[in-house]
Amino acid sequence: MNRMLFVMLLCAGLVRAASSPAELLKKIDRNLEPESYEAYRKIVNIEPDGKRKEFVLYMVKKGNDKVAAVFLDPPSDRDRATLRLGDNMWLYIPNVGKPVRITSLQSATGGVFNNADIMRIDLSAEYDVEELTDTAGSYRFALTAKTATVAYAQLRLWASKSPLLPEKIECLTDKGMLIKTLRFKEIKDFGGGIRRPSVIETDSPLYKGHTSIMIYAGIKARSVADEVFTINNMATLKDVRK
Question: Is this model's pTM higher than 0.85 or not?
């Protein structure tokens, strides 16, 4: 195609311009998961001596600001529930009887994953693209938090181009200190057009020798009523499972 013909086609809207950095980040979000969905996850915490503790959760997400999860296993944690509405988070413990406020940097499972990792919303909802580096087979994003309430002030995201999915995320303070690294592994076809990493591993220089692993056993699009994402519903969140 010669230059004049390309310009004519572009003006006619027949040649699509390349995606902007913000659009690419939104595509990564949607490739990872539908806007509203349900999923089963296992979280495994591994201590320096090799001791392991495992949790199984069922979770639902709706839009960019609603996430809820209920613990299915181990039996000692069964029916505990977490809720995220925007920047606000709660933990429900059955024998306590009422939800208590928690923060994004705390961890409901006690491992390297914090509550922001476990109840993650879209990257594009929390971060702006400060810089995008385009290489032969991948992208490198420098992301900055849109508000001071976000768990990590900065992210460095490496994503493959084909498929457009994250490979690694480094989570940083506003001064550039590394807090943790997330590694996305084992791409799996979950059906319904969802093909994404089934395993996320994390470690942190703040927790030397500790590793946490998140394994997706299932994920599928699902429409969930707003009433599910309420403090009053946390005690019965287990009933949302079909």
Answer: yes
